[in-house]
Amino acid sequence: QVQLVESGGGLVQPGGSLRLSCAASGFTFSDYAMSWYRQAPGKERELVAGMPSSGGSINYADSVKGRFAISRDNAKNTVYLQMNRLKPEDTAVYYCNARALVYVGPVKYDNDYWGQGTQVSVSS
């Protein structure tokens, strides 16, 4: 059974920091690209940061470059999002995503998994 369980959200003052964690199970974590998305009230879900399964470049939304950092620990099947210098506009539900193209014989599966989300609120 595939599971992505986010944790680490909460209420923080502007300028503060939080570290989100996403613990994965039920699939081969190291084979999957991992990303963090967020969705603010009344807005569409947007990509915050993403990293490939191995090698390649890490992508960040322009709005978080220089403040957020994504990392992964394949030994712990966990991806992190370190968020520094938080702003009120960072307030959203943050979702963990795992994605990979998996071949079972000749059949290709586009596996796309989501966590349940964790609330991040930035307010004084």
Structural account:
The protein is mainly β. 0% of the residues lie in helices and 56% in strands. It is built from no helices and eleven strands. The protein has strands at residues 3-7, 10-12, 18-25, 33-39, 46-51, 59-60, 68-73, 78-83, 92-104, 107-114, 118-122. Strands 2, 4, 5, 6, 9, 10 and 11 form a seven-stranded mixed sheet that branches. Strands 1-3-8-7 form a four-stranded antiparallel sheet, with no helix packed on it. A hairpin with a 4-residue loop joins strand 7 and strand 8 (78-83). It is elongated and about 55 Å long. The model has no long low-confidence stretch (mean pLDDT 95).
A few lines on this structure:
This protein is mainly β. The chain contains no helices and eleven strands.
Q: How is this fold's topology laid out?
A:
Layout: E1 3-7, E2 10-12, E3 18-25, E4 33-39, E5 46-51, E6 59-60, E7 68-73, E8 78-83, E9 92-104, E10 107-114, E11 118-122
Parallel strand pairs: 2-11
Antiparallel strand pairs: 1-3, 3-8, 4-5, 4-9, 5-6, 7-8, 9-10, 9-11
